[in-house]
TrEMBL record:
SUPFAM superfamilies: C-terminal effector domain of the bipartite response regulators, Pheromone-binding domain of LuxR-like quorum-sensing transcription factors. Keywords: DNA-binding, Transcription, Transcription regulation. PANTHER family: DNA-BINDING TRANSCRIPTIONAL ACTIVATOR DEVR_DOSR. InterPro entries: Sig_transdc_resp-reg_C-effctor, TF_LuxR_autoind-bd_dom, TF_LuxR_autoind-bd_dom_sf, Tscrpt_reg_LuxR_C, WH-like_DNA-bd_sf. This is Autoinducer binding domain-containing protein. Pfam families: Autoind_bind, GerE. Residues 170-235 form the HTH luxR-type domain.
Amino acid sequence: MAYKAELDRILEALDATETLEGLQLIVEQVCEVFAVDHAMYLWVETAGNHYYFGTYSKAWTDRYLDKAYSRVDPVVVGCYQRFHPVDWKRLDWNPKPAREFLRDAMEHGVGNQGYAIPIRGPNGQFALFTLSHNCDDAAWEKIIARYNRDFILVAHYFNRKVLELEPSRTAEQAQPLSPREVDALTLLAIGYSRAQVAQTLAISEHTLRVYIESARFKLGAINTTHAIARAVSLGLIVV
């Protein structure tokens, strides 16, 4: 039961810490307890800004920000569409930007396996807690089978502590959407293509693009998928 005692110590440390430096130490402790190479908490803010704690190298985190990789990172993009944890292998790595991102990440030691837990908080907050490792599929499946519930528990404890320590860092309240913007996002959310949405609303695809970009700006979203996720979480559209 040594592992369970270590898990309890992580949760107790999260309850007790009163500093951001303490959160960074806890992320490092998570890696030791679960025997994985990396752990990362990432809060994706409006306009693509980020707030994070983690064990990736500074070279990689700086490059991630400089390249605005959150716009193409399948982990971020994929988790906007999900409410449940996901193994990285189940995400879409086929688009060329995703493949290029993966190659860059691997060169920076991110790891060939990963598990991401989407977190949605107050006022449309969106964050991720991810764990990554270098191992074969069989070994990774054993890690996930053993620890997945604990990963989820730690992720939400961690986010709760971040919100407690950073009360001023809240997601921006979205501006009201126009009826056309609501219609466009709703139809996209239920699976219509852009061409089908334009046809249904009797508008051109160019006009539709204007509505979508306007809604994205109002919602502080980095892409259309994020805009839909924010609109749903804020109750601005119902699907």
